[in-house]
Amino acid sequence: MPPRPAPIELRDDELRAITGWAAACAHGVLELFEESHPEDTRPREAIDAADAFSAGARRTSALRRAGWAAFHAARETTTPTAADAAHAASHAAGAAFLHPVASAHQVRHVLGAAAHAARAVELSTGTPRWPGRPAPPAVVGMLRRLPAAPAGGGRIGDLMREFDELLRA
């Protein structure tokens, strides 16, 4: 059995900043989902819930459900660009559930929205880019307390590792 990851400090203000940044990344590509699925509000609701948490709302099961709903929206679409945009929204809500443990898996909570948003842009334009605003110090600080982004994960994993390396530098 592998050893349990070591605990790390995670302050509420850091968690809110990380979630707010993830929501900004997802919001930057929301239109790529809504162009294909204007009637499906699940990704927007996940981003709104993440924004509300980052602004001071409680972390609730409704936030978790909004993230899962956006995940299901991503799984139900047949458009890869829309799927990555919805996954970005799902990860934005999921960022609020970052655990205070030094596990490489936690890097996905920090960078998942950015990686999926960059992939949605890449599928749309041919070039990945960071959507949203620059990463706040809380994102960089958290990454420096976590192990490097894990191997695997296809193109999303590649983008996560690239962003992880850039932000840690």
Task: Write a structural description.
The chain is 64% helix and 0% strand. By secondary structure, the protein is mainly α. The chain has one domain (12-168). The mean pLDDT is 95.
Unreliable sequence segments: none
The number of domains is 1
Largest sheet: none
Helix-residue proportion? 55-70%
Shape: globular
Structural classification: mainly alpha
Mean pLDDT: 95
Listing every helix as H and every strand as E from the N terminus to the C terminus, the arrangement reads HHHHHHHH
State the end-to-end CA separation.
Answer: 32 Å
The total of helices stands at 8
Radius of gyration: 15 Å
Q: Roughly what fraction of the amino acids lie in strands?
A: under 5%
* Number of beta-strand segments: 0
What brief labels describe this structure?
8 helices; mainly alpha; 169 residues
Topology:
Layout: H1 12-27, H2 30-34, H3 42-54, H4 61-76, H5 80-94, H6 106-125, H7 137-145, H8 154-168
Summarize the structure.
64% of the residues lie in helices and 0% in strands.
